[in-house]
Structures are given as C-alpha cells and as structure tokens.
Amino acid sequence: MNKPAFVPVILCGGVGSRLWPVSRSERPKPFIRLADGQSLLQKAWIRAASLSGVGEILTVSNKELFFQIKDEYRKAASQVKKKISDRYLLEPFGKNTAPAITLAALTLKSLYGEDAVLLVLAADHLISRPKPFQEAVSKAAKLARQGRLVVFGIKPDSPETGYGYIEAKGHSVLRFIEKPPLKDAQKYFSSGKFLWNSGMFCFTAKTLLSEIKKHRPDILSSCLKTFAAFPKNSKIGLSRIDIDPKLFAQVPEESLDYAVMEKSKNASVVSSDIGWSDIGSWNAMETLIPADKNGNRVKGKTVLLDAQNCHIQTDGRVVAAIGIKDLLVVDTSDALLIAAKNRAQDVKEVYSRLKSQGDEIHRLHRTVYRPWGTYTILEEGPDFKIKKIEVLPHRRLSLQLHKQRSEHWVVLHGSATIQRGEKIFTLKANESTFIPPKTKHRLGNEGKIPLALIEVQCGNYLGEDDIVRFQDEYGRP
User: Fold this and answer.
1) Are 256 and 215 in contact (CB under 8 A)?
2) Distance CA 390, CA 145 (A)
3) How far is Cα 28 from Cα 25, in angstroms, rounded to an integer?
4) Are 470 and 398 in contact (CB under 8 A)?
5) What average pLDDT score do residues 322-337 get?
6) What are 30-43's pLDDT values in tens digits?
7) What is the reported pLDDT for 192?
8) Domains of the chain
9) Which of 169, 202, 205, 327 could disulfide-link to 105, CB 3.0 to 4.6 Å?
10) Mean pLDDT confidence for 443-450
C-alpha cells in the first residue's frame, strides 16, 4: 500500500448542546445544513478531500451516527474530482479527543508506520479560504515531520471570549490559555502576540504516541488494550472498526489540549488566516446570515414589526415578532427557544436540564434518521401514534415484531416489499396492510425511488423500545 503524504482525521463527536433545539444528540451539530444546502460535516469532508496529496480520510465518531455520516459523504463526493477512501473508527460512547486521536494514531501507525502524518480536523468548523488553508497544512505537515506537535492558530479579529488563546513567538508556543474573561481577551487581542486555538492539529503517529506516553501513560495503556482488540488486515486495513465498549469504558476521558498540548515542550503553532469559524453557539451561527437594515438576521418565514438586532430562525411555521430587541428565537417543529442574545452560551444548560429530566427532546427531532431512511412523527396520543416513514432505495428495515402494538401501513408513493409472518408481498401507492401484535414483519424498498408510507400504531405502549429484532443488516442489537 502506498504511504499517503498525510491522512486527515475528522472528529465527529459532541452534541453541540449550545445549538439546541436544532442540534440534538442523535442528529448533532455537524449535520446542521447551511444556506447552500451543505452540512458542516459535508464541508469538512470536502475540505479535507480537496487537499493536495489526500487519498483517504479517517473519521472518528459515535457508532450510532455511522450510516448518517456515510450518507453525508456519499452526497458530498460529487464535489471532489478524485476517489477518496473512507475509514471509520466508531466509538460506543464519547471519551473526548485524547482517546479518539490516540486510537487514530495507533490505527494509522499500523497501516503506514510510525511516521504517518495525522491532520486532525473538526467536523463542525467553517473555513472560507481554501488556498491559505492548503498553505497552512503544508507548513504544519513539514513541522510535524520534524517531530513537532503542531496546532493551528487563528489570527483573531476581535477579543472573543468563547475561544482558547495561544501566546506565540514565531512557530514557538509560549503558553496555552483557557477561554478568558472579556478584560483579558481585550488585552490579548490588543497585544498582537496571541492567536485563537482552533483545535486543529498535525503530527506524526510517533510524536503523538510518545507525548501521550510521557504525559498521560494511563490513556496510552488503556488505548493500547483497546486497539489490540481491533480486527486486523495487514494488506489493506479495515474500512470500519467498531470499538469494544468494555475495553473503551476503561479509557480515561480527556481532551488532547489538557492531556498533552498544554504540558508538552514540543508544541509548535502555525499562524493562519484561513477564514476560520467554530460554529459553537447561536451567536456564531447568526454571523452566517446577512443582517437587514434593523440588524435582524432571519432564516425562514417571518413578519417583523419594530424588531431590532434579533436572530430569528424557523423551519416551518411563520414567526411574527413585534417590538422586540436583542433576542434569539429558534423555532423547530417540536421545540421553541427564546433567549436574550447575550445569554446564548446558556442554551447548553437548557439541554442539560432536558437530558437530566429524561425528556427525549434533547435526543430526537420529530424526524428521526435511521440507516434505512427516516420516520417523522405526525401525531400522537395515549394509545396511538402516526408516522410518515421514508425508506431509501435498496434499503430495508430489520425483521422484527412488537409485543404491545399493531401497525397499519398505507403506501403513499413507491413500492413496498413486505414480509408479514411467512408471507412476502408487494404494495403500491394507495394500497395498505395490517400488522397484528407479536407478528414477525419486515418492510423494504427494492425500487429505484424512495418509498413513503403512513404508519398508524395502536396499543397500550408505543415506545421505540417495544421491538424484538431477528435479523438486521446494520449491526443493531
């Protein structure tokens, strides 16, 4: 196998809780679509794939997001004029960036040797200047091959308090600073000696593993045990590796910044002006929307009377606002956020409270993505639930049964291949069938166009956990 110049490693983890209610744990921030129709994740993949010398990309993410990520990459592939091989390291749960990057380094070392160069990128950043980005990557890769741990520093354009800072002298890192109060941020910005810490890195597998061993041997030791259980193929490696949850549970949770970068004497920085933005909050998101003459930034259908300096976003319903100022309004099909703009960072506390209360609205939208397609909850009550189900071409659901509910299916368009008990048959538009409780069944789409149908569930319990799977093509239990 030819050794690549470097391998981009895209980290697609984290919930993006400060962007609730659009970002949720099963459809997090990287999947948010911008005005051009592309998601943040698609932009990250295209950016990495377009770099000179790149032929493959390694993505580290949660196992539950795998099929969503694959679909995002498949749709983005037409934007890149070369073949890209994708590999995946799939975590059973998050452990922050230090374990994710350590396991990526071990994987690429096993494939290409200890001098393999990792370019670590986030799935939720925006970079608007591709040529300077390529130049910065080339500089970083050169330093990495000299045995340095390289972080990309961003030239600040304001005294931002939401980013960490790097005090730098040339390529030398003098110190890392956590997110500062405004007074300190203003001082750092005025001095011209500080850069924002982008959270993007470049280093060889050898250098990273050596530094992890020096500063956090407990992380390296537990990652080595986890890595030893990976399936191996000495010729081509594996395109998908599911990390063992029992072994991964023993890995300490830590960020790479805390574990290594802030302790290392081997850190270098590449100062870059690449049009970088970390879309970490609604205040950052609103900068992507042009302001009107009253300073309002609007996405969706709105009616505004005497509104000033507001960010209003709706994905369906009309939002009318009268006599308001400096407010954030985000309306989705099942949740409404209203906040003072200067409290945008506190949205994560709303998310945390919903999660602690066990409210599913922190986790799921009304439209839920599955490996086979989507379902949207249209209406529900104590003993019924109505869904619209869409199945992608050549995909099918698991062979399953439900103990406590029946299901009525009416096909809207496309052709449904249905197994009910031992019988297999086909339904077309305007045809229907009934699935009694405790009956094995399966729904599939063998056609070339998406299948859409209405499902009416009836029963005393309608939870998604009322399911017994017998066969599943997507590795779900």
Assistant:
1) no
2) 48
3) 5
4) yes
5) 96
6) 999 998 999 999 99
7) 86
8) 7-278 (3.90.550.10), 282-351 (no CATH), 367-471 (2.60.120.10)
9) 205
10) 96
